[in-house]
Amino acid sequence: MDHEEEDDRHIRDVAAATECLSRFCTAARLERLRDIVNKRTKSVQFVFENVANPNNLWACLRSLDAFGVQYAHVILDTAHYRKPHRLAQAKSAMGSQKWLTVREHPSASACVAALKREGYYVLASDLKPGTSPKPVQEVKWAAQKVAIVMGNEERGITEEMRSLCDGTFQIPMMGFAESFNLSGSTAVTLAFVSSMGGLKHGDLPTAEKNLLLLRWLLRSVPQGPAILRREGLLIEDERILPTSKVVLGYNLGG
């Protein structure tokens, strides 16, 4: 089977699984899922580098969902986590997000390389003294696909990230506070990007939207994976039934 035939088969499998699970979902719920997936965007993606507090990460991901941003990246460099439980908690916060596509990277270089392969311009929020970040309102957010990097709550972005990104920006402060907290910075940045036309809602390719809809149905329909198994709709395809027992990104055992 060549790649084109394999892709066609995958599309058919996704369509069949979606049709099956749709029968176990209320019409109102299905309409809401379709409406939201049609508004998602990949014009802007967010990167969170070595977040210390998992609650902050969870709050940031919630803001991304509210603004329709589908893709987030989390850099978890073990060298920056002296306490192992912090690393485990960050991973847990990632897994708790049902609706976003969250990708984990072991380092800034791995994350930036992946984003640049996809054509993203990488901009990092930076408050380091002595640097010259551009005010957030002066960035031309709508000019290109942008990946926005938010650093650690205490230390900000790493020197590695600073050397790899295409530029930096900051949110100007008018009061005594020197900065917003991580979730506040993320929400404010999203508001600026949205107001300046950077969020191009509805730009996901059809295949991506269909795959997301199926993933969301698996999250919405009780025993969804078991239903698909019973109907013989999960085949030996790594994108549908990986050997790790993760179906389209969701752990069947968890």
UniProtKB/TrEMBL annotation:
The lineage of its organism: Eukaryota, Sar, Stramenopiles, Ochrophyta, Eustigmatophyceae. Residues 45-190 form the tRNA/rRNA methyltransferase SpoU type domain. GO terms for molecular function: RNA methyltransferase activity; tRNA binding. Pfam families: SpoU_methylase. GO terms for biological process: tRNA guanine ribose methylation. Keywords: Methyltransferase, RNA-binding, S-adenosyl-L-methionine, Transferase, tRNA processing, tRNA-binding. PANTHER family: RRNA METHYLASE-LIKE, TRNA_RRNA METHYLTRANSFERASE SPOU TYPE DOMAIN-CONTAINING PROTEIN. This is tRNA/rRNA methyltransferase SpoU type domain-containing protein. It comes from Nannochloropsis salina CCMP1776. CDD domains: SpoU-like_TrmH.
